[in-house]
Every structure is written in structure tokens, then in C-alpha cells.
Amino acid sequence: MFPSMEKHLTNTIAQSKKKRCTSISAFSEGELANIEVNNELLDLEHRLRKVSEETLSQSASFVFTLKNQIGGLAAALKLFQDNRINVVHIESRKSRYRNSEYEIYVDIEADNSRLTDIVSLLESQVSSIAFGNVPCSPLDKNGKEITKVPWFPRKISDLDQSSNRVLMYGTELDADHPGFKDKVYRQRRKSFTDIAMNFKHGQCIPYVEYTETEIQTWGTVFRELNKLYPKYACREHLVNLPLLQQHCGYREDNIPQLQDVSNFLKERTGFQLRPVAGYLSPRDFLAGLAFRVFHCTQYIRHQSDPFYTPEPDCCHELLGHMGLLADPNFAQFSQEIGLVSLGATDEDVQKLATCYFFTVEFGLCKQEGDMKVYGAGLLSSISEFKHAVSEKAEIKHFDPNVTCNEKCLITTFQKAYFFTDSFEQAKEKMRSFASTIKRPFAVRYNPYTQSVDVLDSARQIATVVSELKGDLCIISDAVKKIRCNG
127, 236, 316, 381: which one is catalytic? Predict the structure, then answer.
């Protein structure tokens, strides 16, 4: 083993004797390179495991927040009993974030594998959890709150736990909703809600036989928007709309089926659709993007006002979002935003969602010197589309650090719209802003297992480096062949 690596591990072991719960610091790029070149990964892994066992087999501490439900604490404590984990100390207090929740501080004795298991089990039972370098009190010596990591899905099937947490609409419509007094429409909405609520990952999205009234409403929206697209829609939308017409049945007299569109996107960019009953929280919606899953409504707006809707409907999803989700670069960008949201604080998720709202939903950009629309909320709303491209609209330059504090309006037109000098600039600004969000770990999507890997150890980072090295070899070989053929 190289001296620098030996020294790194020696220091880590020495530090572990002074602390009750130790996290192993990451290795430098040079050390990781030495791991790969000298085939010392197995030895390193053995040493790291030994360090981990020396610290965690003695004691560990963490804090979790209970959901506001009967029997929550009993269910959580039963997990410790079932996994034969000794609870040395436990205390509780009301959450300082939500009055309806309680924080539970726990000292336990467990080996490394059991600690990993109990944390994974608790994540599905509690609102949030903080673990690792947790001090012996819920507050550190400076009185600062412990950093809590909210639960987030680790594999694509975990979306089954969050996709039904609808915040608005679904079967419940506000009194000012166009369809509030229409019993037939409300009953129809219930049937769509049932489909979404019963859907599980791996199932096909049920095909819907739309009524004549629904098709007429779709036809009005489709016809009027297609009058605006050629002059005002962004290039990416215009390129993919004909493909959606060819492969997914986009026509004035036909509402496309979500499963058909999902199959098309899967082949184009790896995205797939999942039915949803209404508005999700920003955290739950963005989490879906991390797995290249787009939560998509199946119902349609009320026929009395096809030019505007106070909520997302299939016109908004299919005509506003699908054209850009069929673009590989935009799909990659969307997933990056989703990954950044996983485990972020509520405040950071809200800022991220606000920037997403004013770009992906209501954004403008310049292409070939002209202002173009790429926001799905505009591309699917006849009235607001016309307003946004008129002289009446207030247009501001997009700055994520400023825009993140703007108020998102759902039931009326936006007070202002934000533009960038190019579509690429919008994506780069969002990426730059997303990089400022702080988390105690990084995440990476594994497309082979459709799961999220949490990168918080040298072993995991070394694995990623190895995989990237293989990809770079492929690219290098391709470049050599292109040069030879040229």
C-alpha cells in the first residue's frame, strides 16, 4: 500500500478512538488513482471495513423525526427489537420544525451491517433521519440544530410510496374550479384518480376511452396551440412534435394514451410516465425526475374553459412537456435537477422548485435572435401563451439567485416571465445554481438497477471512477478510429 494511503488510514483509526461515531473522510483523486492502478482496492476495502467495525460496533447515535400518526414510536422501536439491536439511551422532544412531529434521539450498540439495515428500515417509517457524526445531544455544543436528511426514494419502486401524496385537486375541486358544480365531470375525475392511486411501478398505464366532450376539448386546445407553435415555440419542441404525431397519435381528434407516450419516451431518452391524481409536493415531483419518471395527469380540463386551466391536465402534460422530454439533452438536465433535490433541505427544495417553475414551466429563451417559448405551462395554455409573447408581459433576465425568491402563481397568469440568451444558457444557469445546494453526501443514478447510489465512502467513489475509466476508454477508442477513417 502506498505511504499516503497508509497514513490516511492510520490517521482515521487514531481519530476514531477519540470519537463515538466516526465518518471516514474521502480519499484524494491521486489516492483513488493509485487504488485503481495497483489493484489494492480489496486490501483498502478490508482496512476500511475494519475501521468501520472498530467504531460502529461500540455505539452509534442518530435522530429521527416521527410522522404524526398513532403508534409511530412503537413501530419504530419494534424495528430495533426485530433486528436485535440494543438501545442504550432514548429521549424525545417536540420537533423545532413542525409542531405535529416529534424528534427521537437514540444511542444504540450495533455492528456496521446492522446499523446500515436499521437506517434503511427507519427511512421508510419516519419523516427524516440524521445519522453518522451525530452528537450526544440533539443540539451541538454551539446550540446548532442537527442536520436532518429527509427521506427520499432509493429505487424506482419507492416512488409507489410518494406518488399518491397529492396536495391539491385530485377528486377535491375548489369552489372556483370550472368543473366544481359539474357532477358528471367530478365523477369522471374520480375514475382518473382511482387509476393513479392504484398504479404500481412495473404496471402498464391503463388505456382510457375518452368521451366525445373530452376529445372536443382536446381538439380545441390542440388546434389553437398549433397556430402559435410555428412562430413562438422553441426549436426542440418543434422538432419533436411531428415525432409525437407519428408515433403516439397526436391528432386534433385523438387524445394520446399515456402508455403509448411513455413507450416512445423510453426509447428516445429513457424517461417514462407515471399517472398522478393531481399536484404533488415539489419534493415528490422532483424525486421522480431523478429516476427519469415524469408524473403525468390523465384527466382533461373542463370543457367550459379550454383556453386555461388552474391545474395540470393531460393537455398541459402532453402538449407542454413531452416535446422537451423527448430531447436527450433536456432529459439529462431534468434528471440532474431531480437528483440534486434528493435529501436536500425543505428550503433548498423550494428554491430549486421555484427556479424549475420559472424555467421548465414558464421559461423563455432567445433562438436566432428571436424570443421563443420552452416553458410547458405556456406551451399548453392558449391564453397565457398569447399573453407571454405580447407587449403586455413583463420579461426579466433569468438569474436563479434572484428568481428563486419569486412567487409562483398557479391560478392566474405570472406577474413576470424570465428569459435567457439561449436554451443552453438556461440549463447551465440551473446546473450552476443546483451545485450550490449543500448535502452531506452526493448521489448517482444507476441505470442498470434503476436505483440511486449514495456516494459517501471511498469504496463507492472508487467504483464510480472505475466505471468512468471504462467509458473514457470507449470514447478514446472511438476517437482513434474516427481519426484513422478520416
Answer: 316
